């Protein structure tokens, strides 16, 4: 069930990122189709989150270009929403209040309320609308973050290890929920994950980054719903894991097919004001760097 349309959502062309003397991304080339679900895997420090920050427009490439629907990426990408491992909910706002942070684009109060409640229903939290984030489990908090991210119907969802802190069962439930919403809302998704099984369970295509370079760009040829018990599933997980773990090995033949570049299309999707993204995303990035400094 790959439900991509023919348009190219993102073109990443010869993108480099350097911090001081350190070259984190080296000439990354990648095309992402509209509606495609991409998983980015790779060892710690290979540049996964850096690539996601560039796509969110939070940082600029040192060289190369990123096009979104054929246009150069704006400074803050108003068409994207971001989810992190930490759901980053505001503790002084209720579940409803936190989700409504993603709704500044909705003018009418009634419409806003209806859309928030529909989405809360969809993520299974309608009865928790008036609860405080601290009273929710980690999985429930991520459901709130997901509802907040999707309220504005973003064309692009950037997921930076959003399920990394959840227990195995909750994690699988969230994978299913994200996949269902992806199928319903038809957004383009880029998921950074350390979990190759998660990547194979969810993505149309897996990108392996190694030392800031694309080492593997492989479609996952399994239909949804994917069963972890299928031999093909286990085989793909094994092959990709060996690629992740063994930098010296050549990519397996079965994983080496690269997508043919499609023509660029100007998207007809709604352009959001991006104002609320700016705000949320800025505060989130600040805390991401805080976490990085303190926990790495
Ligand atoms: N603002 C920054 N200044 C300097 N170095 C940075 C900055 N951001 C990232 N780096 C470095 O760039 C490299 C890649 O970081 P990045 O977070 O993209 O890796 P990652 O693959 O997402 O890692 P992980 O899986 O551990 O989150 C790391 O060595 C990191 O320390």
Automatic annotation (TrEMBL):
Organism of derivation: Laceyella putida
Keywords, sorted A to Z: ATP-binding, Cell membrane, Membrane, Nucleotide-binding, Translocase, Transport
Residues of the signal peptide: none
Pfam family, one: ABC_tran
All copies of domain ABC transporter, residue ranges: 10-236
Single GO term (MF): ATP binding
Protein name per Swiss-Prot or TrEMBL: ABC transporter ATP-binding protein
SMART domains: AAA
Superkingdom, natural source: Bacteria
Classification via SUPFAM superfamilies: P-loop containing nucleoside triphosphate hydrolases
InterPro entries listed in its UniProt record: AAA+_ATPase, ABC_transporter-like_ATP-bd, ABC_transporter-like_CS, ABC_transporter_ATP-bind, P-loop_NTPase
């Amino acid at each position: 069930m790959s439900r991509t349309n023919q348009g190219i959502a993102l073109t990443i062309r010869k993108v480099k990122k350097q911090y001081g003397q350190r070259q984190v991304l080296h000439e990354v080339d990648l095309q992402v189709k509209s509606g495609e679900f991409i998983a980015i895997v790779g060892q710690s420090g290979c540049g996964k989150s850096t690539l996601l920050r560039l796509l969110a427009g939070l940082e600029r490439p040192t060289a190369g270009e990123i096009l979104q629907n054929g246009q150069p990426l704006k400074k803050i990408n108003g068409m994207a929403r971001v989810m992190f491992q930490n759901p980053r909910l505001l503790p002084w706002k209720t579940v409803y209040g936190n989700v409504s942070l993603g709704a500044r684009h909705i003018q009418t109060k009634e419409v806003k309320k209806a859309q928030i409640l529909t989405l809360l229903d969809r993520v299974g939290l309608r009865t928790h609308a008036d609860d405080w984030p601290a009273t929710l489990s980690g999985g429930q908090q991520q459901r709130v973050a997901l509802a907040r991210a999707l309220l504005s119907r973003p064309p692009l969802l950037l997921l930076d290890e959003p399920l990394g802190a959840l227990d195995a069962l909750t994690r699988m439930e969230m994978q299913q929920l994200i996949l269902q919403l992806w199928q319903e809302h038809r957004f383009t998704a880029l998921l950074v994950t350390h979990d190759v099984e998660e990547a194979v369970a969810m993505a149309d295509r897996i990108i392996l980054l190694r030392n800031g370079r694309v080492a593997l760009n492989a479609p996952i040829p399994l239909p949804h719903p994917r069963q972890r018990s299928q031999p093909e599933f286990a085989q793909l997980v094994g092959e990709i894991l060996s690629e992740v773990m063994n930098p010296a090995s050549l990519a397996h033949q079965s994983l080496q097919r690269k997508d043919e570049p499609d023509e660029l299309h100007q998207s007809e999707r709604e352009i959001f004001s991006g104002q609320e993204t700016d705000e949320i995303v800025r505060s989130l990035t600040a805390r991401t760097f805080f976490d990085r400094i303190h926990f790495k």
